[in-house]
Specification:
This protein is of the alpha/beta class and about 350 residues long. Helices cover about 45% and strands about 20% of the residues. The chain has 2 domains: about 210 residues, Spore Coat Polysaccharide Biosynthesis Protein SpsA, Chain A, CATH 3.90.550.10; about 120 residues, no CATH class. Helix 1 runs parallel beside helix 2 and helix 7 packs parallel to helix 9.
Length: about 350
C-alpha cells in the first residue's frame, strides 16, 4: 500500500496535464500513487494520459460532477495514510511531497498541510501561502502578491488550498469529505473550517513548493467564479461560524457583501453576484441542517477559532483587486475574460 494517494482532478485540461504529471514523476518521495479523476472531458484528456502516463490510475466520469464530487470519489477509493491534492494547472517542485510528508510526520497535532504556491510565470511572487479567513466571514488568499522570499517559516494557518495540500485520511473520515453541494470553489475553505472546529490544525510548509498557472482553469472574476465563490462563501459562514462569533462578525460580513455588490455592479458581474446570493438563500435549510451536526461536534473554544482569523481590511483588499484587474486588463488589451 502506498503511503499517499495524489489526486489530480481534470476537466478539459489536456494542455496542462503533461507538465503537471511529469512533475509528479520527478518527486524525490516515491511512496505514492497518482489518480486522475476526469470530469467528462471532451478534449482527449483521458486517452492522452492513458498513452503518455500509463502508471496513472484513471477514474473517468461521464459528466462534469464538480471538484468536490470528483475528489470525494477518489478519496473513497483509497486506503492510504495521506491524500494529496494537486491542481492540473500546477507543477510540483521535486521536494514537494517529501517536505509535506515530513512536516505532518513530525507534527502529529496537524491534520492537514498547506504548500507555498508560487506563480508559474512569475516565480518570485506568491500565489498563496495557505488559506486565511477573515473576521468578516470570508476567505482570503494568504500572501497573494508578496515576494517569494517571505512567508518562509512553518506556522499554523487557517487552512490549506486544495490546489496543493496534504490531508490525513483518518481526519477526512472523521470530519467528512468535501461538501458536494459546493460543486467548486470554497470547498477547501469549508473543509479547513470543519477541521479546525474538530481540533485538526493546519501547518503551513514553505519548503513544499508548487508553481501555479493562475486562471488556467477558472478565469478570475468570470461568471462561474463570481457565482460559485459568492454563493459558497455564504454556505461556509452559515455552516461553520460558531454562534458566539456570528455576533462579532455579522456586521463586517454585511459590509463586505455590500462592498462586493458595488464592485460587481461596476465590473458588469452584478447578475451573477445577485444570483449567487439568491441561491445561497435557497440552500439555507440544507446548510442549517449541516450546521447542527458541525456545531454539536465542535471541540475547540471559540476564542481559539477567532484568533485564527485575520482582521478584515476592506480598503487594502479592494485596492489589491483593482490593481490586479488593471494589470489583467492591460495584459489582454481590454478582454478581461480571456486572461
Amino acid at each position: 500500500m502506498d503511503a499517499i494517494a495524489v489526486i489530480v482532478v481534470n476537466w478539459n485540461g489536456k494542455a496542462l496535464l503533461s507538465e503537471c504529471l511529469e512533475s509528479l514523476k520527478t518527486q524525490v518521495y516515491r511512496h505514492f500513487s497518482t489518480i486522475l479523476v476526469d470530469n467528462g472531458s471532451t478534449d482527449g484528456s483521458v486517452d492522452f494520459v492513458r498513452e503518455k502516463f500509463p502508471e496513472v490510475r484513471i477514474i473517468a466520469l461521464s459528466e462534469n460532477a464538480g471538484f468536490s464530487v470528483a475528489n470525494n470519489i477518489a478519496i473513497r477509493s483509497v486506503n492510504s495514510d495521506y491524500v494529496a491534492l494537486l491542481n492540473n494547472d500546477a507543477v510540483a517542485h521535486p521536494f514537494w511531497l517529501k517536505n509535506l510528508v515530513a512536516a505532518l510526520e513530525s507534527t502529529p497535532e496537524a491534520g492537514l498541510a498547506a504548500s507555498k504556491i508560487l506563480l508559474y510565470e512569475k516565480r518570485d511572487a506568491i500565489d498563496r501561502a495557505g488559506d486565511s479567513y477573515t473576521t468578516a466571514g470570508t476567505g482570503l488568499l494568504r500572501g497573494r502578491g508578496a515576494s517569494a522570499d517571505v512567508y518562509d517559516q512553518r506556522e499554523w494557518v487557517f487552512g490549506a488550498c486544495a490546489a496543493a495540500g496534504l490531508y490525513r485520511l483518518r481526519m477526512l473520515k472523521e470530519i467528512g469529505l468535501f461538501d458536494e453541494d459546493f460543486f467548486l470553489l470554497y470547498e477547501d475553505v469549508d473543509l479547513s473550517f470543519r477541521a479546525q472546529l474538530r481540533n485538526y490544525r493546519c501547518l503551513y510548509v514553505p519548503e513544499a513548493k508548487v508553481y501555479h498557472k493562475a486562471s488556467s482553469s477558472i478565469v478570475h472574476d468570470s461568471p462561474i467564479s463570481v457565482y460559485y465563490s459568492h454563493r459558497n462563501l455564504e454556505w461556509v459562514y452559515l455552516k461553520n461560524m460558531p454562534a458566539r462569533l456570528i455576533r462579532k462578525s455579522i456586521i463586517p460580513h454585511m459590509i463586505y457583501n455590500f462592498a462586493a455588490c458595488l464592485y460587481f455592479m461596476g465590473t458588469g458581474r452584478l447578475v451573477e453576484f445577485v444570483r449567487a446570493k439568491r441561491d445561497a438563500f435557497k440552500g439555507l435549510k440544507t446548510m442549517l441542517q449541516k450546521r447542527r451536526s458541525i456545531q454539536e461536534n465542535c471541540v475547540v473554544d471559540t476564542a481559539v477559532i477567532w484568533q485564527l482569523f485575520e482582521r478584515e481590511r476592506f480598503l487594502p483588499r479592494l485596492s489589491l483587486r483593482l490593481r490586479r484587474d488593471n494589470r489583467l486588463w492591460k495584459k489582454v488589451g481590454g478582454n478581461r475574460l480571456s486572461c
